[in-house]
Design a protein that fits this description.
This protein is mostly beta strands and about 210 residues long.
Length: about 210
């Protein structure tokens, strides 16, 4: 089949999010102007640069996390795992401003080192970020849409020691979850390694991606 999104897909459910999948879940913690914590998951999320490390998330309306991140210039990404799925799902609820998703989901907070926003204490990894860019998205006709892109530079990295094995972060052991289409999710449980054509004999396992 072929369709133009502006004309509709003709299917019972939109396939777009199922095609662009799996997508890492950006579990974003922030604080508002009164210092009150907020926590919410975003499925439009990913790393966008490695040196310096940067990541981005998109909010399809001006929700608390996006507003807080833009206003404060800071946020924290918390890795969401299979064991934390239920808590993450609870944190996706529409809580009134000022009410803590940490409390609703039964999650303990941990202090960050550099930014004011707290971390999810039990997350295997958390990345403290400072906002370097934010913008309202536009369509091909240059009309604003109800979407805001926030890009943050990672300024601090927390990793639980039990997930560092042989000098690597053990992704499969952490079992991060990802968003697929509809109400579907995926869990990382195994990895495979492959050499690039440019690796040649110089590749050393565990070295940073080039």
């Amino acid at each position: 089949m072929f369709y133009e999104p502006r004309s509709g897909h003709g299917l019972p459910h939109d396939p777009f999010k199922a095609i662009i999948a799996p997508r890492p879940i950006g579990w974003i913690s922030t604080v508002d102007a009164q210092g009150r914590p907020n926590l919410a998951p975003y499925s439009f999320f990913n790393a966008v640069h490695s040196n310096p490390p940067m990541l981005a998330f998109t909010s399809e309306s001006m929700k608390h996390s996006a507003a807080n991140a833009i206003a404060s210039g800071e946020f924290v990404f918390n890795l969401c795992t299979r064991a934390l799925f239920d808590a993450m799902n609870i944190s996706s609820g529409d809580q009134p401003a000022g009410e803590s998703e940490f409390e609703a989901a039964g999650l303990a907070m941990a202090a960050s080192r550099i930014v004011k926003a707290p971390r999810v204490a039990v997350s295997p990894a958390s990345l403290e970020c400072r906002v370097v860019s934010s913008m309202q998205l536009q369509d091909v006709d240059a009309k604003p849409v109800q979407g805001w892109l926030i890009i943050g530079q990672v300024v601090g990295v927390h990793i639980a020691e039990e997930y560092i094995r042989d000098g690597r972060f053990d992704t499969a052991a952490a079992q991060p979850i990802a968003r697929c289409g509809y109400r579907d999710y995926a869990t990382v449980t195994e990895l495979f390694e492959a050499m690039r054509p440019t690796d040649g004999g110089s590749y050393v396992a565990g070295q940073p991606d080039r």
